[in-house]
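Shipment paperwork, digital attachment
Item: protein structure file
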Amino acid sequence: MNATMRRVVIGATAVSMALSIAACGKAGDSDKDSGSGSSGGSKSIGLLLPDSVTARYEKFDKPYFEAKVKELCSDCKVEYANAAADANKQAQQVSTMVTKGVKVIVISAQDSAAIKSSIKAAVDKGVKVVAYDRLAQGPVSAYVSFDNVKVGELQGQALLDAMGSKASPSANVVMINGDDADPNAAQFKQGAHKALDGKVKIAYEQSGLWKDTVAAEKMSAAITQLGAKNIAGVYSANDGMAGGIANTLKGAGISNTPLTGQDAELAAIQRIVAGTQSATVYKAYKPEADTAAEIAVALLQGKDVKSMATAEQTSGSGDKVPSKLLTPVSVTKANIKDTVVKDGLYTVAQICTAQYAAACKAAGLQ
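Attachment content:
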């Protein structure tokens, strides 16, 4: 080999070694940044929400969660999907997230039992799962929600307060509960019964499946069964269903019947102002979403999140899950200003549109 050829070979070898070292350096840096010990997709967090019918999820939970993740991890990416109330679709979304290389999945289960196998499959592939708002079955690492039994108690007590002197062991109350596939629904129901049993008569009780149309149908059936004049109060497990119930009551010529809800939806706050709904339960979305984001980022960084939990919950699959349970607040006409308005959830202008101007003035909101 002549001198010129030797110089070419040596130069090529040096370039090759330099590129290899640079590539190793980049890979090492990526692993270090991710805190998860893996490359591709290692800074991605999946957010899976159950439906778009419930206003809170896409209007509040999603943007709050994304903003907090960005604050905590500027180069983290949130992969989002909504199940559109379809448990099979959500199961596929979990699988898709795993395929994309997502390392942490935050999920509000459409069906807490049905999603169990999907969660196990994800965890078996090294993905950490956080149950959000609803306690999913399976090997989840943490759970963020509210004290849901307390939510039901607040709903039940608000109904009794609104019924006033009409609350008696013989007073007929209609209960429209949430979807049985949602473990929260059972806890709301448990808390409500704790407040109501023995003080009123639960004369009609059905599931409204979290759908306003189904709740409206159930309310219509209750009116047919009990008689329009024989219903002293209505428990609705959430505000979406309360909207359907309120329309049915109005259509049947029934007015001034106490009606509860939950979620502090804007339409519900307006019904409270107008007097067609008695109360709702405010579960501050931002603290819940922020906490879930904090836990998700911590898991992404390989940290132990047990210290972030304040309680332990046992899921339907028997798994004991470190949990952070926040405190819900009952909202009536008297404290709208001190709750949802004070926290910036809604402005007075958003609540007090032209249709509600007179009612808002009477309520002291304007």
